[in-house]
Amino acid sequence: MKRRSITVISPSRSQPNQAEFLERACASIRSQSVITGYDLTILVGVDEDEKSNTADLAATYEFSIAESNGKSQASALNAAIRQANTEFVAFLEDDDCWAPSYLQIAERELASGSAFVSSTQLEYDEYGVILRINDFPTPSGWIMPMETLRAVGEFNEEYRFHLDNEWLGRLSETGFPRVHLVESTAPIESRFIGQIRPWLANAIQYSENLTTLVRHQSPIPLVSRLVHSQSGMAQISANPLLAEISANEEQALRNRFGRIPW
């Protein structure tokens, strides 16, 4: 039987915790319960002129490097996308990680006809304190067939902070069915979703109602997301100039899609 193949793309920037982040992210990918059934490629997208600085980490944690021709997350992601040539593609930011069953559950939904899988995340801070469950379909939960990625295309490099929203807007334009994975206790009936978990309602409404919520058996999300001082949202909160860039991007999204896509 032909083996499946998957590329996991992880954007990474040179900073003091880069080695720690990449070690944890790569370990979570390789700890997937069904990973032995795949030919696995881990592609780390880095900024222009950063390949040599990441070479030792690549040798240690066994990933390939895709060097961009720019200095943005979108350009790093696109450099990796251009190298990907596998049946499936997934994204995992270097400061996030997957629970061991995530790929298995995602592949079940893809086999059932979904063209795209995303997930809620368990957010925690730099001290390991749990902050909240985030229901936005962040890229660290995205898993899809290569056909989906090719149909939507690369990330828009004009966006610094809301590149994921812009990409999701173009995903909605394809009409492809989507699944958003939620923990076992999350509401999935419409009469409860809006009043209990409004962001889950957003995930459905702002995807043009192409998203179906699917519970898994875990009481917590299968994607864990580290919230730290260098993250994009933290920078927006701390810097008025960056907040203005973010607001301008949000307005551009409303102008283009009539909403901020999820």
Alpha-beta content class: alpha/beta
Number of separate strands = 12
CATH superfamily: Spore Coat Polysaccharide Biosynthesis Protein SpsA, Chain A
CATH class assignment = Alpha Beta
Q: Taking strands numbered 1, 2, ... along the chain, how are they ordered across the largest sheet?
A: 3-2-1-4-9
**N-to-C order of helices and strands:** EHEHEHEEHEEEEHHEHHEEHH
* Number of contiguous helices: 10
Return the average pLDDT rounded to an integer: 96
Number of domains: 1
Radius of gyration computed on alpha carbons: 17 Å
Q: If classified by CATH, what would the architecture be?
A: Alpha-Beta Complex
Helix content: 25-40%
Termini gap: 37 Å
CATH topology (fold) name: Spore Coat Polysaccharide Biosynthesis Protein SpsA, Chain A
Proportion of strand residues: 15-25%
What's the arrangement of secondary structure elements?
Elements: E1 4-11, H1 18-30, E2 38-46, H2 51-61, E3 64-67, H3 73-83, E4 88-91, E5 96-98, H4 102-111, E6 116-119, E7 121-124, E8 130-134, E9 143-145, H5 146-152, H6 163-174, E10 178-182, H7 190-196, H8 198-205, E11 211-215, E12 223-226, H9 232-238, H10 240-257
Parallel strand pairs: 1-2, 1-4, 2-3, 6-10, 7-12, 10-11
Antiparallel strand pairs: 4-9, 5-12, 7-8
